[in-house]
Amino acid sequence: MKRILLVRTDRVGDVVFITPMIRELRKAFPDAFIATLTQPHTSSIMLNNPHLDAMIIDDLHKENFWKVVKEIRKFNFTHGLMMLPTERAAYQMFLAGIKNRIGVGHKLYEVITFMKSVSRNNYTPLRHEADFCMDLARKIGVKTNNIELEIFLTEEEKNEAKRFLQKFNVSENDFKLAIHSGSLGSAPNWSEKKYLDLIRTIISEVSIPGLKILLTSKEMSEEFVNEALKIAPRSIVDISKSFESLRDFIKVIGEFDIFTGPSTGPMHIADALGKSVIVIHCHRAMSCAVHQGMINKNCINLEVTDENCKKFCSADQNTCGIENALGIEEVITSIKTVYNRKIATEKVTE
To answer: Do 283 and 168 share a structural domain?
Structure first.
């Protein structure tokens, strides 16, 4: 029986990208024992996952290195899949006695620990990050092209999210359009000024009964929040400082009708929950929609065109011109498209 450890100790969105692997490994090996190794806060992404047997936590603190090795060793894993080259995790799996270890690339510490490798061929041809992750599962026998992301919420968690929003006078019948204006530098993004213009345009041009605009990014400046609230005090709500944990945020994301912002972890969480997500992307390979785009059928990926990339970005693409290269009118059109699609679906189901 296979006992498989999936290692992903980096950012939120990257951890979401391994959720298809868990499902497909379970399909391929129904009797396998499957576990994940993640950081404490990202482990909440895996809660209630019916395909997962255990979660191991690593806070990445130097003094806890051997503690994690001992924890891994307890499970007698036969396979360890490390989706991102990580020296710490490579040695932890080696010292924990995992016989079959597979990583990405040929880092010195991977060679020293005799780790097998899957090549990304310099990202040529470019594919989605979740598909590159799936290559490691394919290496041990999984055969699939299904990279649909998934996160599982219980009914009680859904009810908790409804009660949370009610505290902000946001009812279940309101149309909840959430804007996540921050990226923590992980993805090209607009300025706060442009997000204010987006909010003004939504209020003036988008006619949606019961519309509530929810601001969710902890990065927002006080000036931005104050200016946003002035635009439509009854329709705009700042909920950004009200989450005690990532899981609390995940629960509330599950209640959004539309979620929009840059290509960051919260957007991928919404994608995994099957929500309607409108995301702005730059054109360069590592940030474009092909590699980092939303996957579920309710999502819309907006990407800087090749023409605008050449016009507004630096020649080496290291300086992104997304501020001018992608307009708010594209987001507005997408919001209307999603809303009209929702109304049409509701009419069909009546």
So the answer is: yes
pTM of this prediction? 0.96
| Euclidean distance between CA atoms 46 and 187, whole angstroms | 24
Residues 120 and 172 both lie in one domain: no
- The answer on 203 and 109 residing in a single domain is no
Over residues 141-162, the pLDDT tens digits come to 999 999 999 999 999 999 999 9
301-335 confidence digits (pLDDT tens):
999 999 999 999 998 888 899 999 999 999 999 99
Tell me the CATH number at 96: 3.40.50.2000
pLDDT tens-digit readout, 156-212? 999 999 999 999 999 999 999 999 999 988 899 999 999 999 999 999 999 999 999
SS3 state of residue 100 = strand
Contact (Cβ atoms closer than 8 angstroms) between residue 321 and residue 309: yes
What is the distance between the alpha carbons of residues 308 and 273, in angstroms, rounded to a whole number? 32
Cα–Cα–Cα angle for 222, 224, 229, nearest 5°?
95
What range does the domain containing 59 cover?
A: 3-139
Q: How many CB atoms lie within 10 A of CB 288?
A: 18
**33-38 vs 3-7, strand pairing mode:** parallel
Phi–psi pair at 68, nearest 5 degrees: -70, -40
How long is the chain? 350
Check if the beta carbon of residue 220 is closer than 8 Å to that of residue 191: no
Give the type of residue at 22.
Answer: I
Q: What is the average pLDDT across 116-142?
A: 97
Q: Are 189 and 262 in contact (CB under 8 A)?
A: yes
For residues 175 and 308, give the distance between their C-alpha atoms in angstroms, rounded to a whole number.
33
